[in-house]
Amino acid sequence: MDEPILIRPLRPGDSEPLHAIRLQPSVVAGTLALPSDRVADVSARLEQRGPDDHQFVAEAGGRVVGTAGLRVGRGKTRHVGEIGMMVDEGWRGRGVGGLLLGALLDLADGYLGLTRVELEVVADNDRAVRLYERHGFETEGRKRAAIRRPDGLADLLVMARLR
Ligand SMILES: CC(C)(COP(=O)(O)OP(=O)(O)OC[C@H]1O[C@@H](n2cnc3c(N)ncnc32)[C@H](O)[C@@H]1OP(=O)(O)O)[C@@H](O)C(=O)NCCC(=O)NCCS
Asked: Which of 17, 30, 68, 154 is deepest in the core (most CB within 10 A)?
């Protein structure tokens, strides 16, 4: 369990392990993932990625244990990046999320020159909100009743980090 964590770009073959993480109950609860999402949906989304889509994968002991992605805006939002991430339930609380987020922010700051990085997170996802706050994100607003879950409609927080 003390294997080093490697952060690398996405590559072919990652769809199946990423799909398995996407279907974990806490990922379904904390993101837009549906329990019916198919491997083919994940592969199609990964294949459709263009030059403005950047994605890192975390690997430990040869296994994919998490991912984080950033999409750069077009036209007048060229300075903005939108991010999302997930970590395998068996690997939480060991800094994988922090490493993935750090890699995205280094890319955004050091190479892409983005001055605003934003995201939306389910309002009761305290763990994710804390992780983002530790990396300089602030809550800008709340989209009420924005996402449906089995227990009812939930709010989304809009968070951003400006540089
Ligand atoms: C949000 C999420 C990505 C965080 O991933 P993670 O790998 O657990 O994140 P980290 O380990 O870097 O940080 C989380 C916690 O572990 C702690 N931690 C970090 N490094 C640690 C280490 N080496 N040893 C022990 N604990 C550590 C952090 O202090 C933090 O604690 P806190 O939340 O109690 O303050 C993960 O919970 C997840 O995938 N959730 C489901 C999907 C999701 O919600 N995605 C975000 C949608 S916007």
From this structure: 68
